[in-house]
Amino acid sequence: MSAHTDQVDALSRAVLQKVSPDEVAHLELVTSSFHASRRRQRHNDTVDPLAFGVEAAVTALAPIVVMICAKVLEGLAEEYTDRTARRALSWIKRRRRPDDAVVGPFSAEVLEDVEEEARRSALASGVDEETAAVIAKSLVAELRGANQTGDER
Amino acid sequence: MSDRTAALSVGSRPERDPFRYPSGTTVRFGVLVLSAVSLGVPAISERVASLPGFLRGEFAGTATRNHQVHDCYARLYQNGEEDPSAFAACGVVSPVPLWVFAVALAGFVVVVLAVYWLIPVLRVRRRGYVAIPYADLRAELDGLREMAGVGHEIRWLIDPANPRPEALAFGRIGRRYIMLSAGVVALRSRQPAAFRTIVLHELAHLRNRDVDLAYLAIAVWRVTMPIAALEVFGSVFAPLVYSSNPGQLIAGSVGAVQTILLIVMVPILRNGLLRTRELYADARVRLWTSSDEVDDFFSTHAAAAPRGRRRRRALSTHPDLGVRRAALRDDSRLFQVRIAEAFATGLVFGIFYTQIIRISDFRPNSEETTWSFVAVRVVAVLLVGVWSIAALRALQTSPADRRGSAMIPSAVGLGLGWSLGAGVLNLDVAWNLYNVRFGVLGLCCWVLASVGLAIVGSRYVHSVIRTWFHPGDDSRPRGAWLGPAAIALGLVLVVSGVLAPHSISELATISFAYAFPGHAVIYLLEGPIFVLCNLLVVWITWRSVALGAAAWVVLLIVNSRRARRARALR
């Protein structure tokens, strides 16, 4: 387990607690599957032709929350890498999946971008508009909370 | 059994049972296997047969020689040659040896079974399914399994990364899995009825024993398609390279059309099978549940489904929600044999016939060979089987239909499909039509005879089955099937006499002024007359197994007389 995956798990748990508390019990299973599929470089987003056969709306939010949290934290890590790395090595770092935890504080502009990106990702995953907004706001609230903790330190 | 599962098992049972006789899924699977074998096995055989020559450096040895012999025959026919020794001097077209066909068939079956065996393991690994870790959920699922009457063990899996309500029954003999997505598990506490419906639907697939059919169909498709891609080029270009005779080119083009048709048919049949099994699974759930849980689920979730992901009907692996809901309200759809389905069945039977006769050596003028004799009787058995299944299903929906009128559209489809597959798309017939000119009129008469026989035959089988079997009545004594079986055997002999495409040359006597003018008429009427006689016998002796067997003996005698007369006329 890297610091990055720990951070994804913690952030997902916090967000899911707000948007769908009854799914927190399954979160560990979801996150371990998510990280395993990332390690295998596989994206299981195809519809199985032999499955139940009803293209119904999303009913579980945990996989979507984990996916969005991972995406947002990776985006922030890339931002961080770009600012600090030397130019000659930046192309390597940009392509490497970050293993370190992302440390704030994050500016208001960055948090605004994060909210928009999270909302867009949730909608693309099949979540309705209202739930997508709740997920995005909860995520930003968590990051803002981390900001405040960092400031106090 | 808990109160809830007990309540579920008291579901209302319909008067007609769609699971009593072989279902549409089984028939489609049989047709799919035949089409895949017709496509794959001859292609492999020809490559294997040409391998020794290829290794000796004769890159087109047998094929070139065969085309030269064909060209020689064509020249003689066009010059009006009638001396048999002149034809003998051309040589003989070498067929693919029987053992090569046997080895190719065995290899095809082994590879299909290997793919079928590996699919479940690869699916679990690639999709990241894991065993369900929650003991309470597993206990509830096992309760549903017991209620569904699925006796064997099921490994319950979860796809934690899938947020939509999806489930899948898969596996192989001895190892069955049911996968539930995270979306389904989330429904358990929020919408228990929907959760139960989805799980029961997957259990219904296991109970209907269609999981093996579905995965064998996929294995067949995966093995056949790469072979087909190679075959289509070979069948199109080989005649262009080796022959200058237009008849040979026409035959080559016919072979190419045949291959392309099979390539189109295999995925359509596969998807048709996958769609049908869903309707039967829904019907099974409907038997288990006392309320309209399935319909409620469809109406709720169809409204919430994302748009823009619907594929065309023929290529989709699931029926439209509208069709599924309609089938739940009126199960007639499960008993019908549609005209398109019957046409596809006849077409595949016809092409299958043309592939079996490739084992024999080529005879100009479409003379009957050992393998064409065998092939037409194999197809006749299949045909009588399909008629019987169609009749059993038709009698379940319309027990009062005395004449089997409901079967006429499917019989027409079957006859036309057969005519296309075994006549129009028969390489030998195409070659003969150009070179021997035995008459397009003969082909037309044969098509009419085939369609007419399909109609008469289907009505006849319907009447036999109506006499011997009463759907829903189990009081028939054991052994009663011997009567219809004996009559079916007799029918096979009559059917095979009329259906054989070599009879095209006999029917062509209509166009020859010197031929006995009544021959073709007698030939056309012979089959129906014997069928009507047999029908009379059945009507009189409807409870007698012994007389059914006697009818068979009569048919045997009549058929042998007919064959003798046909030989004498030739």
Task: Tell me the number of helical segments of chain B per DSSP (H or I, 4 or more residues long).
Answer: 21
What is the number of beta strands of chain A?
A: 0
Largest chain interface and its two residue counts? A-B, 33 and 45 residues
Distance between the termini of chain A: 26 Å
Structural class of chain B: mainly alpha
Assembly classification? heterodimer
Major sheet of chain B: 4 strands, mixed
Largest sheet of chain A: none
> How far is the first residue's CA from the last residue's CA of chain B?
73 Å
From the alpha-carbon coordinates, what is the Rg of chain A to the nearest angstrom? 16 Å
Instruction: Give the proportion of residues in helices of chain B.
Output: over 70%
**Helix percentage range of chain A:** 55-70%
Mean pLDDT of chain A: 76
Query: What is the number of beta strands of chain B?
Result: 4
SSE order of chain B, one letter for each helix or strand: HHHHHEHEEEHHHHHHHHHHHHHHH
Walk me through the structure.
- The complex is a heterodimer of chains A (153) and B (570).
- Chain A is mainly alpha-helical and 153 residues long.
- Chain A is 67% helix and 0% strand.
- Chain A has helices at residues 3-19, 27-39, 62-84, 87-95, 108-124, 129-152.
- In chain A, helix 2 packs across helix 3 and helix 3 (62-84) packs antiparallel against helix 5.
- By secondary structure, chain B is mostly helical.
- Chain B has 21 helices and 4 strands.
- Chain B has a 4-stranded mixed β-sheet with strand order 1-2-4-3, with helices on both faces.
- At the A-B interface, helix 2 and helix 3 of A face strand 3, helix 7, helix 8 and helix 11 of B.
